[in-house]
Structures are given as C-alpha cells and as structure tokens.
Design brief:
By secondary structure, the protein is an all-alpha fold. The chain has one domain. Helix content is 72%, strand content 0%. The protein has helices at 3-10, 13-19, 28-50, 59-65, 76-102, 107-127, 135-142, 152-176, 197-220, 227-236, 242-267, 273-290, 295-313, 321-342, 346-361.
Length: 362
C-alpha cells in the first residue's frame, strides 16, 4: 500500500470510533497510588514554596513532583530508580533550556533546542525503560525553560526548585510504595521493554524533526505558546502503529478541547492561589484514575491541570491560554499524523490495511 492509499483507511470513520473505545486499565490500584503520591508531592512542594520568600518560583517544584507518576507498574526493586531517573529528566532539560535562553538564544533557536531535547528524551526513556506516562511529561516540563530568563541566578533557582520537587516525590514514593503492590497485575506489564538502539535513535530523530516543524509553524503563525505544539506532536508520534497514531491525534484533540473549556470556566472566575492549587491536586489524582480507561478521559483532566500549573509559574500570562492550548494541540496532532505517514514503512502501511479490513469485517 502506498502512502497516498494509506490516507483513506487512516482517516476512516472506524478510526474515530476506535479512538473512543473504553478498556480496563492494567491496575486501577497502582494508578490510584501513583496519583495519590503525585498529588501529595505537588501539594507539599507548591504550598511550601508559596509560603517561602521564593513564591514566584512555585510552578517549578510542581514539575519536579511529576516524577512520582513513573514506575507505577515496575517491580518493587525498580520503582525508586525509575522515579529518580524521571526526576533527572524533568530537571536537567529545564535547566539546560533556561541556560540557553539566558545565553541570548532567539525564539526559533529555543524551539529547535526543545525539539532536539524531545528526540533525545525519547531515546533515554526507551533506553532506561522508564515507561508510562512517557516522554511527553518531560517535554512539558522542558517547555518551562523556553521563556526569557533575566539572570543566571534565575537559571539556578529554576533548576534547584524543580530538583527539590523531584526529591520530595522520591521521598513520598519510597515511604508509601508498599501500597502499590497489586497481586492481580500481570507480570508482563511489570516493566516496559526497550527498542533496539538503532530503532530508538531513528524514532528519536523523527520526533525531533516533527516537534521542530510543529513548533516553528506555531511561531510563524504568531501564536503565544509555540512550544506547546511540540508537546502535541511528540504525543502523537508515540503511537507504535499508524492507526494508534490516529487514535492519539483524535483523543488528544477532543480531550484538549473539552479540558481547555473547563480551564477557561475556572480561570474566568479569577481563582486565588489556594483554589488553583486545590484544583491541580484534584485533577492530578483524577487523571491517574481515568486515563487508563481512555486517553480522552485523561486529557480532559490533564489539560486544565497543565494550564493551571502554567498559571502558577506565570500568573500574568493566563489570558488566552485555553484557546492557545487548543490551537497548538491541533497543529501538533496534524503535523504528527503527517510525519507518521511520511516516515511509515511498507510494513506499517500493510499493518494499517490489515487492521482496517479486520475492523470492517468485525
């Protein structure tokens, strides 16, 4: 099947219906524990920072606290190393991009650096078998380093507070990880296998190119948050098959539109800091409970949570954020689908054709 011929089954109504299928998560208990650990870490680090002399940095430890999301299905002996590695991948890219920004890099250069990091992070996530929720979380955190930086002290503070959030997440996971044990969890899902190095490198290069294209298109369009388009493109490119890429694009678009609407309604009431923090904590926990059933459900919670976390880091930049998130997500999804099809192999397209015929027969 040619790439042109693959467009029809890729865009078939059946792919849309499949995108909304609901499935049971591998372990609701483990998801709930990971959500509770992350929510508690976010609550502690953000509240403590808000009450400190560094209240203007309160969004950064929240990013580090997301390390608690990782390793939820890993064996007990691997959980804490995975959380530690996740903390490193949340902190280092943010610090690196902040340093590049401080060095005077132009906006386009910053976006290219972000895209390159997205590719590198995808390779590291694969090599270190970090697993769900995957590279998108790390790219989201790295986006916080793209904006202007006024001093090297700010670079150090951003990095230090993100690392502190990751450290608190590690401590909370270590103290409560016994709650995560689930005897019903199949052994096969305990750890994610890694791709061969060559395949992972090629996939990383594709993600970097796709993220760069989406972000630069958003920048050329004059949109306020072009880095968010790189997040959307990276998320869509995580699909292992063409039809899964399409599912991700549909799910991410629909979930983001609905979630952005919730964020707009909430922000329109000009909530105080404590109401924003409470919403972030509740949305974080809700995300982990529902995302295993369908990615759409997760995005409905993730989108307002991400926007509210952004408002904590930049409280004066909330106007227009929900619509900007929708536009960037749609652009990232479209670019992601185009790149997935462009770089697809003959086997990928044959698998799509077989899947399409099976769906029609069923």
């Amino acid at each position: 099947m040619s790439r042109r011929a693959a467009i029809r089954p890729l865009l078939a109504p059946a792919r849309i219906r499949e995108s909304f299928a609901v499935a049971a998560p591998p372990s609701l208990r483990n998801a709930a524990v990971a959500g509770l650990q992350t929510s508690l870490a976010v609550l502690i680090v953000v509240a403590a920072t808000h009450l400190s002399p560094w209240a203007h940095l309160e969004g950064y430890p929240a990013l580090g606290a997301l390390a608690a999301l990782f390793g939820r299905f890993a064996p007990a002996e691997r959980r804490m190393p995975i959380v530690a590695l996740a903390g490193l991948l949340l902190t280092a890219p943010l610090g690196l991009l902040s340093a590049v920004s401080m060095a005077g890099a132009a906006p386009a250069t910053m976006l290219l650096c972000l895209a390159l990091l997205a590719g590198v992070l995808s390779v590291l996530v694969n090599r270190w078998r970090i697993g769900a929720p995957g590279v998108v979380i790390f790219v989201f955190a790295a986006c916080a380093g793209v904006g202007p930086v006024d001093s090297w002290r700010t670079v150090v503070e951003r990095t230090a507070f993100t690392a502190a959030g990751a450290a608190v997440a590690w401590w909370i996971c270590r103290a409560s990880d016994s709650l995560r044990a689930d005897p019903a969890l199949p052994v096969a899902t305990a750890a994610d296998g890694a791709r061969p190095a060559l395949h992972a490198g090629i996939a990383g290069a594709r993600i970097a190119l796709c993220a760069a294209t989406a972000a630069l298109l958003a920048l050329a369009a004059g949109w306020a948050h072009p880095a968010w388009a790189a997040i959307g493109a990276t998320a869509v490119m995580q699909g292992t098959q063409l039809h899964i890429t399409m599912h991700r694009a549909v799910q991410r678009t629909v979930g983001t539109v609905l979630g952005a609407g919730l964020a707009w309604l909430f922000l329109a009431h000009h909530p105080t800091f404590w109401w924003v923090l409470l919403a972030v904590v509740l949305l974080q926990f809700a995300t982990e409970l529902v995302i295993g059933f369908n990615y759409v459900f997760g995005l409905i919670c993730v989108t307002p949570m991400a926007l509210l976390m952004t408002s904590l880091a930049a409280p004066h930049a909330t106007a227009g954020m929900p619509m900007a998130r929708v536009l960037d997500t749609v652009l990232g999804a479209l670019v992601g689908i185009a790149f997935a099809l462009l770089f697809s192999t003959l086997d990928d397209r044959a698998h799509l054709a077989a899947h399409h015929e099976k769906a029609r027969a069923g």
